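At this stage, I put together one protein's amino acid sequence and its backbone structure tokens, which the following lines show:
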Amino acid sequence: MAAIPESPAGQPAENGAPAAGNGSPAAGNGAQGAENGAPAAGNGSARRPRWVRNHRATALIGALLAMLGFALAVQVRSNSQTDALAGAREADLVRILDDQNSRIERLQGQIDDLQAAKQRLSESGSNNAAARQEAQRQADALAVLTGAAPAHGPGIRISITDPQHALRAEELLDVVEELRGAGAEVIQFGPVRIGTSSAFTDSGSGISLDATLLQEPYEVLAIGDPNTLDTALNIQGGVVNTVHAAGGEVHIAEQSSLSITATRTIPTPKYATPTGK
């Protein structure tokens, strides 16, 4: 391999760098010649090579572009979440509006019931029988809502297939959340009655609900307004679309009469006790 010839003493080297004569450092008050052709600076200070300045400028520009790209990505994601309904179909928007109106009606109905109960108790005065009757009515309603008692009413029956076993606990939880958001008062998922403490967990053998291993296809019963519950699951980007994307199918049957017999055991409080007031 040919050797690179040395520059003659006293003559400029390639790239314009002044060569040091007789092996001595380049002149300039003891400053050595910089690499890549940068001449040595006098008065003991070395000029920064141009390639170093260019490299740092390129790095700075790259960092700024990376920050700009990250900011744009965050903004796009934020806008997509904020404007999630912007790309929805008109039929889906109508369904969502109907769902919200139904929710308002349910809440207004609860307000009316509470006001009626207050009126009854106010009119009864010191009538303990009326107070006990109202307390029993509230206890019965809470027993259904907490899962301690069977329930009966209109609703929907759902069957979810997952042949590729692609669904995870999070997707099954979304089914329950969608039903709750649409006003489902009682839900049974597989053999388990859903309660406030219910939890889906992934495991090596499948998905468990409250320590009970669920079997596919997943059968779900929900009591509530059938049309509203059906609409909530079929909203674009909702449960049905998620299951289809995973290779499964969702079958929903609206029913005017549905019975849920599974119940939950309400734990006895360890520390809390009634005050007697």
Observations:
- DSSP finds six helices and eight strands in the chain.
- The CA atoms of residues 18 and 213 lie 81 Å apart.
- The first strand starts at residue 151 and ends at 161.
- The helical segments are 50-82, 90-124, 128-146, 169-181, 226-234, 239-245.
